[in-house]
Amino acid sequence: MNNTEEIGNVIKNMLKELRLEDKYLQARIHSAWKDISGEYLYRHTTKVKFQNECLYLYINSAAIKNELQYSKTIIIEQINKEIGEEAVKFIKIF
């Protein structure tokens, strides 16, 4: 085991002890959405929430909401790839 792996394990254990795993995952998913959505789409996102394996995206444009409905599978794949785990299973767009 190298130092990077050891530090990663220490951080994971600390987050678990402090019960911050969910908040940390929420922050990682929000950051991933910002990275994969691009500036234009991100500006139209009013809220990003993650709960019970579901990503909730609040979008202020009806046209963009409609377009995103057809891209849910791709979004799930990209976010999970970005965060390095299979956390997001569903997406709801509002």
Question: Care to describe what's here?
Answer:
- The protein is α+β, with helices and mostly antiparallel strands and 94 residues long.
- The protein contains 4 helices and 3 strands; from the N terminus they run ααββααβ.
- A 3-stranded mixed beta sheet has the order 1-2-3, with helices on one face.
- Helix 2 crosses helix 4.
- The mean pLDDT is 90.
Provide a brief overview of the structure.
With 94 residues, this protein is of the alpha+beta class. The protein has four helices and three strands. The longest helix has 23 residues, at 21-43.
List keywords for this structure.
alpha+beta; single chain; 62% helix; 94 residues; 4 helices
Overall body shape: elongated
* Low-pLDDT segments, ≥5 res: none
Q: Helix/strand/pairing class, anyone? A: alpha+beta
Helix content: 55-70%
Number of helices: 4
Which oligomeric form is depicted? single chain
Radius of gyration: 15 Å
Average pLDDT: 90
Beta-strand share of residues: 15-25%
Distance between the termini: 44 Å
State the major sheet. 3 strands, mixed
List the helices and strands and how they pair.
Elements lengths: L2 H15 L3 H23 L1 E7 L2 E6 L2 H8 L2 H12 L6 E4 L1
Parallel strand pairs: 2-3
Antiparallel strand pairs: 1-2
